Amino acid sequence: MKIIYISIEVKSRELLSKLFFIADNINENFTFFIGDKLSIKRATKFFGKGIYFYKSINKNDTDHISSVKNKKNIYVSLDEEGGYVQSNSKYLDSFLQFRSSFKNMSLVDRVYTWGAFDYKGWKERYKKYSGKIIKTGSPRLDLWRKDVYSKIFKEEILSLRRKFGKFFFIPSTFYSSYSDLSLALNNERKIRNNKNILPLKRRIEEKKYAFYLFKVFVKLVKNLSKDFPDHKIVIKPHPTENVNNWGREININKYKNIVIDNNCDVAAYIEASKCVIYNSSTAGLQSIVMGKKSIVFNGLKKDKSFRNFPNQCTIQFNDYKLLKRELNKKFSKKSNSKSLAKIKKRLFISNKSCSKKIFEDLKKISRKQKSEINIDNPKIKFLSIFFISKDYIYFIVNKILSIFKNKKDLPANTYYKKMRDGISLNEINTFFTKLEINSKIKIHRFGKNGFVIKKL
Q1: What is the dihedral of CA 44, 46, 49, 51, to 10 degrees?
Q2: Sign of CA dihedral 364, 146, 440, 432
Q3: Which residues of the chain fall below pLDDT 70?
Q4: How far apart are CA 332 and CA 291, in angstroms?
Q5: Is residue 376 classed exposed, middle or buried when 0-12, 13-18 and 19+ CB atoms within 10 A define those classes?
Q6: In sequence order, what E strands does 237-393 have?
Q7: Distance CA 217, CA 301 (A)
Q8: 278-328 pLDDT, tens per residue?
Q9: What is the C-alpha to C-alpha distance for residues 37 and 129, in angstroms, rounded to an integer?
């Protein structure tokens, strides 16, 4: 039985789609390891060669890729940052200069793309390695399908409707504090000498524009609060944002129908909402595909985003009065037809799941690879207990250090921002139950945040 190693870096962005990928292919003769980067690194060390499925081939990942390949693994990647949202091909090429390299392309076995747009960009940049680039779509797109999200998020959707009633959904993709903006600007300055087609000045303008939009949306939600007192305005901060940033800018006691909530998946908020109001957010594309009313709100300044394709797909307003008038109009799903057609030119959306399409290729490239694993092996149980104990000790030590050093950004805290409370056996079981998987599945824990999954 062959092995697929699936590494998760940002839980809210990657876990459910990768679990769907497993569920959609559970009847194949493969064993799946899924977990945080540390768990998967350990698994590749102890359980032999397999297919390593990662979220990028970033130019800084060369040592990591080499390490994985030196263990005789097949290395495949689908970039989770989503080059497909770039405003045009020029910005996409700039994006790829950071998210990939010729060296890494020479090392990896496959690069999967979200659709025709980024597929063309990858092929043009890496003509020599064009055979490694496959247009498949992403498992994240599978979660946009009604037959999928209506099962997975049914309870969350009902809960949001009961909790908030009628509400407008605001997905945040901004820099929501000056400290976050300063950190982003410093990072840009550190790479000023990088041979990038976009000059430092232009990249700094883009970051400042994202902070400007945050201020625009703070004013927007306050206006919506006053003009639509019978609606809630629900803000979902980006996974990398500090949830408290919005609260510091909005007096919740004064604007009682404004809610900052980050407890559900974005699909649940979209489906439960009356309308999605956004700027440069993938959630905007998702809302259109899901058949919801979707509106872009801009500031008065010229759009300086590199990632504004989502803005090109639906109606836009600079004037709040016009937005208010639009919100009072009735909505028909037919009005999304042109927008949906435009999105499909960029993203691989079809009746066949992206997860199946990826797996078809994985089976082809793994035919010559021989690997066997027995997940009932006592070795897995022993190593799991050992690593859980080790991780727990590390957590306690780090907690003590953070108290004495009075630092908020020690490794454990940085990890928490991405993985939150980690991955639990219960949430994996619940996910498979919601999908109504008929096959019997066996799951073993491997360390604190790693699991082995296979069909019985």
Answers
A1: -30
A2: positive
A3: 192-197, 371-376, 405-414, 416
A4: 9
A5: exposed
A6: 258-260, 275-278, 294-297, 316-317
A7: 13
A8: 999 999 999 999 999 999 999 888 999 999 999 999 999 999 999 999 999
A9: 27
pTM for the predicted model, two decimal places: 0.90
Rounded to a whole number of angstroms, the CA Rg of the chain reads 22
Query: What integer pLDDT is reported at residue 409 of this predicted model?
Result: 46
Neighbours of 249 (CB within 10 A): 16
Paired tokens of 109:
């076995």
State how far the alpha carbon of 418 is from the alpha carbons of 133, 230, 240, 262, 283, in Å: 28, 35, 7, 14, 19
The tokens of 172 are what? 């945040």
Distance CA 318, CA 322 (A): 8
As a whole number of Å, the end-to-end CA separation of the chain is 12
Residue whose token pair is 């840009």 = 188
Spatial CA neighbour of 172 closest among 68, 230, 242, 79 = 242
Q: Which residue has the tokens 């200069």?
A: 97
Q: Cα–Cα distance between 104 and 340 in angstroms, integer?
A: 34
Judge residue 201's burial from the number of C-beta atoms within 10 Å of its C-beta, 0-12 exposed, 13-18 middle, 19 or more buried: exposed
